[in-house]
Design brief:
The chain has a four-stranded mixed sheet with strand order 2-1-4-3. The chain is 45% helix and 10% strand. The longest helix is centred in the first third of the chain and has 14 residues, at 3-16. Helix 1 runs antiparallel to helix 2 (22-34). Strand 1 and strand 2 form a beta hairpin. The radius of gyration is 17 Å and the shape is elongated. It is α+β, with helices and mostly antiparallel strands. It has a single domain, classed as Helix Hairpins. The chain has helices at 3-16, 22-34, 37-48, 71-79, 97-101, 122-125, and strands spanning 54-58, 61-62, 84-85, 92-95. The protein binds zinc ion (ZN). Zinc ion (ZN) binds at residues 55, 62, 64-65, 67, 86, 88-89, 91.
């Protein structure tokens, strides 16, 4: 994860913990100083609307809005060369730790082995 994203993730976790300790406040100020104002502005707009400014991507799904993100977005995140916004909810995206380990295959073959799951009742269990 690149430094900018790491700073955003840290900032969000500090701010959402509602941590009023002085140490946290100065850490927040320090992080905000490191993040470009344009990015911070967008983040603050999301937070002002009661949303989180960041969402993890897990299994190619934005955990903020539960919509699929494109493989291109995931690939960019994995390369760590740019930050990405969710097309649907506009949150900054970062890869969840679990996703990092597995490499998504850009050429998805329509495999014959996959059976459609017919577990209609499974929703009740979640
Ligand atoms: Zn989203």
């Amino acid at each position: 994860m690149n430094e900018l994203l790491q700073n955003l993730v840290k900032l969000q976790s500090l701010e959402f913990e509602k941590n009023t300790e002085k140490a946290a406040a100065s850490a927040v100020a320090e992080l905000r100083g490191k993040i470009p104002s344009q990015i911070l502005g967008h983040y603050d707009r999301l937070v002002a609307h009661g949303k989180k400014g960041l969402a993890a991507v897990r299994d190619q799904v934005c955990t903020g809005c539960h919509m699929h993100v494109t493989i291109g977005v995931v690939a960019t995140l994995m390369r760590d060369d740019d930050i990405q916004l969710c097309d649907n909810c506009g949150r900054y995206l970062y890869l969840a730790e679990a996703t990092k380990a597995e490499v998504p295959k850009p050429t998805a073959k329509p495999g014959p082995a996959r059976k459609p799951r017919k577990s209609k009742g499974s929703l009740l269990l979640v």
